[in-house]
Structure formats: structure tokens, C-alpha cells
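REQUEST FORM: STRUCTURE PREDICTION
Request ID: SP-0412
Submitted by: Lab K.M.
Chain count: 1
Length (residues): 127
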Amino acid sequence: MADADLDAVIRQLAKQQNKSLLAAAKKRKDRFNGLAMKAKDKDAKERFKLLAREVVEQASAAARRLLISADNVADSYARAMRQAAAAELPKKAELKKAEPKKDEIAPAKSKADSKPAKKSAKSKKAA
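STATUS: Completed
RESULT:
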């Protein structure tokens, strides 16, 4: 796998997680079925059987979502790598044009522009 693409690795890891998820769900289902067999009243048996069915249903839905998500991620990665490989590198002349020159930078303000206007003596007395 040293030379494998990462999209294949993503799919393989998802399959492994899917198998372990379904194995854990099977163990849990068997546990609930065992509890249903040991239960003494009818309500408890039905509740445990319902839990066993619900575990299988929810685990299979989660496994399906896991595989779909992994496929989407792997496809997205593969597409991005194809686009990156097909993209052209910008030329050096274009890079130099994009940089602003020192002459193009706005000139600094003069000292007269930067000082605020002084108030007249008449306006100070009126206030």
C-alpha cells in the first residue's frame, strides 16, 4: 500500500469499520435475544425482541451512511487530485506583473494635509 492512492485507502478503511460495526451490532442483537429468552413475563420478552430488531436496523443504517460518506470523500479526493495534476502552473512573467511597483503605491500625504485645521479665536469665544 506504499504506492496506493489515498482514495483506495479511504474506501478500504471504511469497509473495515463497516465490518466491525456490523459485528458489534450482531453481538448486541444476540445479547438482547438471550435476555428475551431468559425473561419471565411476556412484556419483557417483547421489549428485548424489539430492542434486538432495532439494534440491527439502526446499525445497518449507520453502516450504509458510513460507506456512502467514505465513497463521497474518496471521490472528492480523487477528483481534486486529477484537477491539481491537470492545472497549469502560472508563469514567472505573470507573477511579476501581479506585484505592485514602488512607483504605483499611493504617494504619502504632505504635512499640510495631515494637520487638522485650527479653529479661529471667534469660534472659541462663541462656544
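NOTES: The two ends are 84 Å apart (CA to CA).
Reviewed by: T.R.
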